[in-house]
Amino acid sequence: MTVSRRRVLPALAGAGLAGAGLAGSDAAHAAGPAPGGLALVVLDVGGTLIADRGEVPRSMLGALSRHGVPVTAQELSSWRGASKRAMIQHFVRRAGKSASLVDAVHADFNAAAMRAYEKVAPIAGAEAAMRAMQAMGLKLATTTGFDRPLYDAIVRRLNWAHYFAASVTSDEVREGRPAPYLLFRAMERAGIGDVRQVSAVGDTPLDLQAAHNAAILAWGVFSGAATEERLRKEPSAGVLPSVAALPAVLRKGAYRSICR
After folding, report:
1. Whole-number pLDDT of residue 35
2. 91 and 151 co-located in one domain
3. Residue 63: which domain range?
4. CB crowding 108-145: b at 16 or more within 10 Å, else e
5. Do 29 and 130 reside in the same domain of the chain?
6. Handedness of CA 44, 45, 50, 51 (dihedral sign)
7. Of the residues 65, 84, 116, which one is the last residue of a structural domain?
8. How far apart are the first and last CA of the chain?
9. Contact 209, 233 (CB under 8 A)
10. Which one, 4, 156, 157, 166, has the greatest CB density within 10 A?
11. pLDDT in tens, 164-222
């Protein structure tokens, strides 16, 4: 594990890169060779690649409420980016309910989220950014707090499967974010064995914490659940308006300068 790189990350959150705000149109034209050493970019889904209009918390609040599990929207906010099953287990246990209720709540949540995402919209410039990063020779992967059926439904509707060398959902690892296992599994599936060749992108504190725990360079994007101010409190290479800005940042050598 590259411990020295891990120690550098907290200092980067307040560096000049944290203020990098590049237009989405720049990202669409950011082709060229891969930044030195970078081979894989691991992307979160909700709020990073697809628009976050509160579908997840509404679906979760509704599912928990229908099964008599009390929770507030504020309490859910700290769980954004986490495994949805782990979230349900936490609140069911806190309410003193039987663990057997977890499966029912989870099925209810998935059904509600499926309906909510029937007209899912990409983040502006996200697809152009993925094309640009592929043109650099980079592999792309996704990780998500969704389970496989919901993730597959979203990607199928957008016709995005061809962009990704790997995808990992929260039901495929022992523990979700902030544990690093989603990222490690994505690396394994993409055939990348060195964390120094990987960067991660996410819109929640848990996304950035998971990357930090994996010793992987991370970029925060405030296109989803968390504000720019909140993301700046986590260790990262920088905070961007959205993933649309990332290819241009990479093309201009920001990744090389951080990893030297």
Report:
1. 63
2. no
3. 55-116
4. bbbebbeebbeebebbebbbbbbbbbbebebbbbbbbb
5. yes
6. negative
7. 116
8. 17
9. no
10. 166
11. 999 999 999 999 999 999 999 999 999 999 999 999 999 999 999 999 999 999 999 99
The gap from C-alpha 234 to its chain's centroid, in whole angstroms, comes to 14
Task: Say yes or no: 210 and 99 in one domain.
Answer: no
The CATH number that applies at residue 27 is 3.40.50.1000
127 shares its domain with 189: yes
Q: Are residues 209 and 95 in the same domain?
A: no
Q: Check whether residue 148 and residue 207 sit in a common domain.
A: yes
Per-residue pLDDT tens digits for 103-144: 999 999 889 888 888 888 999 999 999 999 999 999 999 999
Q: Give the per-residue pLDDT at 3.
A: 33
In the chain, the DSSP E strands lie at 40-44, 139-144, 166-169, 198-202, 217-221, 238-240
β-pairing verdict for 166-169 and 198-202: unpaired
**Domain match, 243 and 125 both:** yes
Reading the block at residue 34, the tokens are: 């891969």
Q: What angle do CA 101, 104, 110 make, to 5 degrees?
A: 135
How does DSSP classify residue 50?
B
- Which two three-digit tokens encode residue 69? 């599990």
CA dihedral 88, 90, 96, 102 (to 10 degrees): 30
Q: Are residues 100 and 212 in the same domain?
A: no
CB 45 within 8 A of CB 243: no
- Report DSSP letters for 60-112, one per residue: HHHHHHHTT----HHHHHTTTTS-HHHHHHHHHHHTT--TTHHHHHHHHHHHH
Distance between CA 131 and CA 128 in Å, rounded?
5
pLDDT score for 33: 52
